[in-house]
Design a protein that fits this description.
68% helix, three-stranded antiparallel β-sheet, mainly alpha, elongated
C-alpha cells in the first residue's frame, strides 16, 4: 500500500500553495456573494435584470480564471525558474496569457454590471449619458494593451465611485437612506486599494528573468481584485440597499418609465394630471353613491314603487369588506297600492 503524498507547504522557495489556497478561498466567497445577490433580488423584486446576468457571466469567467491559476501553480508558479523544465515554463507562459485575458474580461463585466444598475435607477438623462460614457470607456479599456491596463483600471474604478455619489444626491429620500445607498456603492474603494497593491507588485516583477517566482504576489493580488470587484458589485443588491432605494429612486424611475416624469423624474404637470384623473374618479363614485341615498323612490309600472333602503355608510362598509357575501346583497322595499 502506497503512502499518501505529503501536502504542499508554503516555503521560501515555493509560494505556489498559498496562491492556490487563497484563489479558491476568494472564489468561494465570490460564489456566496453572487448567490446572496440572486436570492435577495428574487425575494424582493422577483425578477432578473441585465446587470444580474452580467455579474453571473463575470462569476463564470472568475471560475475559469481560478482554474487557470491552479494550472499555473501546477506548472511552477511560486517556484524559481531554474528549478523548472522547459516544458513547464512553456505551459506556464501559455496559461498566464489565458489567465490575464479572463481576468480583464471578468473585471469588464463586473464594472459594466455596476454601470447598468446605475443606469437603471437614475431618471436623469444627464446621468444616463455619463454612465453610458463610462461604460464605453470600460469596453475600450478591456481591449487595451496590458501595459495600459493599470492606470486605466484605476480611472474606471474612480469613476465607479464618483458616479453613484452624483446619482444618489438627486434621490428624493432622507439623508440617512442616501448614506446607506452611497456606502453600498462606495464599498468598491477596497477594489481600488487592491489594484494599487497589484500595480506595486507588478512593477517589482517587471523585466525579471525569474518570472515564475516573482509573479506569485501579482497573481494573488489579481485574484483579490477580481473577487472584490464581483463581491462589491453584489453589495448594492442586498436588502438594506434595496429597501432604501425602494422609497426613493425606484419610484421615480417607475414614473419615468410610465411617461409621468419631468427632467428629474418628478414632473409636476404629469403628476397633476394623474392626481386630477384620480379626483375625477372619486367624484364619479360620489355621484353614483348619492343616487342610492335613503328613501329614493323609483316609479315603476302597475302601481309599484321601489324604495332603496341602503345608505352611504353601508356602501362604504361594503367597499371595505367586498369579500363578504352580504356585500353583494341589494336591499329594497316594494310597496303595492290597491285601487
Amino acid at each position: 500500500m502506497s503512502s499518501p503524498q505529503p501536502q504542499a507547504v508554503d516555503t521560501p522557495s515555493n509560494h505556489g500553495p498559498i496562491v492556490g489556497v487563497m484563489t479558491w478561498f476568494l472564489l468561494a466567497a465570490t460564489v456566496c456573494a453572487v448567490i446572496a445577490r440572486v436570492v435577495t433580488k428574487l425575494a424582493i423584486s422577483r425578477r432578473f435584470t441585465s446587470d444580474d446576468f452580467l455579474i453571473i457571466a463575470a462569476l463564470a469567467l472568475s471560475i475559469g480564471q481560478g482554474v487557470a491559476v491552479t494550472l499555473q501553480v501546477a506548472n511552477g508558479l511560486g517556484k524559481h525558474a531554474d528549478t523548472l523544465s522547459a516544458s513547464q515554463l512553456d505551459k506556464f507562459d501559455k496559461i498566464d496569457y489565458a489567465s490575464n485575458l479572463l481576468f480583464i474580461l471578468n473585471l469588464c463585466l463586473a464594472k459594466v454590471s455596476v454601470l447598468q444598475m446605475l443606469r437603471t435607477i437614475t431618471p436623469i438623462q444627464q446621468h444616463v449619458r455619463m454612465v453610458l460614457g463610462v461604460a464605453l470607456f470600460v469596453l475600450v479599456w478591456s481591449m487595451s494593451f496590458w501595459n495600459a491596463y493599470g492606470s486605466l483600471n484605476l480611472i474606471t474604478e474612480a469613476a465607479l465611485l464618483a458616479l453613484p455619489l452624483m446619482i444618489v444626491w438627486k434621490i428624493q429620500t432622507r439623508l440617512k437612506k442616501k448614506g446607506v445607498i452611497f456606502l453600498c456603492f462606495a464599498s468598491r474603494i477596497v477594489v481600488l486599494a487592491a489594484i494599487i497593491f497589484q500595480l506595486v507588485y507588478q512593477n517589482r516583477a517587471a523585466h525579471t528573468k525569474d518570472s515564475t517566482f516573482k509573479m506569485w504576489p501579482v497573481v494573488l493580488s489579481a485574484q483579490t481584485v477580481q473577487s472584490l470587484s464581483i463581491i462589491t458589485a453584489c453589495v448594492p443588491c442586498l436588502k438594506p440597499f434595496l429597501e432604501s432605494l425602494e422609497s426613493g429612486m425606484l419610484r421615480s424611475d417607475d414614473l419615468r418609465r410610465r411617461g409621468l416624469s419631468g427632467a428629474y423624474g418628478y414632473g409636476s404637470h404629469n403628476l397633476t394630471s394623474l392626481s386630477s384623473s384620480r379626483s375625477n374618479g372619486r367624484k364619479e363614485k360620489s355621484a353614483l353613491a348619492s343616487n342610492a341615498s335613503v328613501g329614493k323612490h323609483y316609479k315603476l309600472p302597475n302601481n309599484i314603487s321601489t324604495v332603496v333602503t341602503g345608505n352611504r355608510n353601508e356602501d362604504a362598509e361594503r367597499d371595505s369588506d367586498s369579500q363578504k357575501s352580504s356585500a353583494r346583497i341589494i336591499k329594497y322595499t316594494r310597496t303595492f297600492t290597491v285601487e
